[in-house]
From TrEMBL:
Stated name of the protein: L-cystine uptake protein TcyP
Cell compartments where the protein resides: Membrane
Chief place where the protein resides: membrane
Assigned keywords, A-Z: Amino-acid transport, Membrane, Transmembrane, Transmembrane helix, Transport
């Protein structure tokens, strides 16, 4: 009966958001209202029942139909969107001969900012005097540590991880079956694009038919994206209610220093993103204003892949980034050079854990080694999947540090992961914007347009 009442409350709030939509309240405002309502609902549920109660567990199972269902719909459309957008970029002649330069710039920016992120993470961990030996391990933390130790056997060499990027079966990759599927789809679409350019030179009539077909499919896919994005306020409401309702605030308090140090590092890296935008000759204020909704969704959903459609639409519609560049930046950013998960997090863990095995974390040689390994292994994450967890395993294993100690942070992992995911998405958008600025392909009028185009509109 209690679960039914909680579900009815959620439904009433969803109806209220629908009412705001009919009253033509701006999309961005409805997203923010959904966020606030979700936080309030989650707090009320936790205060009444407790984070680990059976009532919360049963209620969250029903809330997930809306929250997790929404994220899955975004993931559903991500692969078709990446594929057709890359292909469409060739028919619009926005890639072509610049493909190598564009891909190289994006990778350079992603990996470069990851190395900088590692340096920031090291600095934050040092300033806050973080030390893994000071943390108390309970049963859950020990089990998590043992699980991480087992996963070290899944880590492959860098050459093997790079080989995994290539699409042996593109149709399998279109299903998102592998951790590197997104990049594999980009590669397959690029091959088709170059093939199309050959057809243009040899058979103009056939190329026109192909172009019309690609444009038709592109319109269909973008229609699906628009429909799904209109559900964002409802999805965020359910996701935040679940997140806040199940958060262990006691554990967060006990590990407060690590949480604060993590967010200080994440905020500093975000400020660096803004400086990169500024050095590109663009306004960081406009970037914050226009990227806000997408970063908010990434923060609440903790899903870089789920954020991809919003990421791409924001780059193209609000920042004036060409389709092809936006898709390369967004797709590569899912697996390579993640500033939060593959940069800040593993670097902080390395500095925390080093003293437990007698290593001085302030040794310049050790610090340089950590930054180098973090930057290189940010490619490796793509080969094994698992985001921050596998990034940490790869880095700690390469440094010969005990992986199990990372298990102590299991209780605050969701809270930190929210900030990490938002930073990952910001990093990929900055890579797309900066690359299009360097190549001279950004539409400055769109970027500087003060009117926010609703992401839920066609």
């Amino acid at each position: 009966m209690i679960t039914i009442i909680n579900v009815i409350i959620l439904l009433i709030l969803l109806v209220f958001l629908r009412y705001l939509n009919k009253k033509h309240v701006k999309f961005s405002n409805r997203v923010f209202i959904g966020l606030l309502l979700g936080i309030v609902l989650g707090l009320v549920l936790q205060l009444i029942y407790g984070a680990t109660s059976e009532e919360i567990t049963n209620t969250v199972a029903w809330y997930n139909i809306i929250g997790t269902g929404y994220v899955k719909l975004l993931q559903m459309v991500a692969m078709p969107l990446v594929f057709i957008s890359i292909l469409s970029a060739f028919t619009k002649l926005t890639l072509g001969n610049n493909l190598g330069k564009i891909a190289g710039l994006i990778l350079l920016i992603l990996v470069g900012t990851t190395a900088i992120s590692a340096g920031v993470g090291i600095t934050s961990a040092t300033l806050f005097n973080l030390n893994a030996s000071q943390l108390v391990q309970g049963e859950a933390e020990k089990e998590r540590g043992a699980s991480l130790e087992e996963k070290t056997t899944e880590v492959t060499s860098l050459p093997e991880q790079i080989i995994e990027l290539f699409p042996a079966n593109p149709f399998l990759d279109l299903t998102g079956a592998r951790s590197t599927s997104t990049i594999a789809v980009v590669i397959f679409a690029a091959f088709l694009g170059f093939s199309y350019l050959r057809v243009v030179r040899k058979d103009e009539e056939t190329s026109k038919m192909i172009k019309k077909g690609i444009e038709a499919i592109y319109s269909l896919v973008m229609g699906i994206v628009t429909i799904v994005l209109r559900l964002t306020p409802y999805g965020i409401l359910a996701i935040m209610a679940r997140t806040v309702g199940t958060s262990d605030f006691g554990a967060i308090y006990n590990l407060g220093k690590f949480v604060i140090a993590s967010y200080v590092a994440l905020i500093v890296v975000f400020i660096i993103h803004l400086l990169i935008i500024l050095l590109s000759g663009l306004s960081p204020i406009i970037y914050m204003k226009k990227a806000g909704e997408t970063l908010l969704f990434a923060f609440t959903s903790r899903s870089s892949a789920g954020s991809l459609p919003l990421n791409l639409k924001t780059q193209v519609d609000r920042f004036g980034v060409p389709d092809g560049i936006a898709n390369f930046a967004g797709s590569f950013g899912l697996s390579i050079g993640q500033n939060g998960c593959a940069g800040v997090y593993p670097a902080m863990l390395a500095i925390m854990i080093a003293p437990t095995v007698g290593i001085n974390p302030l040794n310049p040689t050790f610090i340089i080694t950590v930054i180098f390994i973090v930057a290189i292994s940010s490619f490796g994450v793509a080969g094994v999947g698992g985001g921050a967890t596998f990034a940490a395993i790869i880095v700690l294993s390469a440094l010969d540090l005990p992986v199990a100690l990372a298990g102590v942070l299991i209780s605050v992992e969701p809270l930190i992961d929210m900030g990490r995911t938002a930073l990952n998405v910001s990093g990929s958008m900055v890579a797309g914007i900066t690359t299009s600025r360097i190549t001279g392909e950004i539409n400055k009028e769109v970027y500087h347009d003060p009117i926010l185009k609703d992401l839920g509109e066609t």
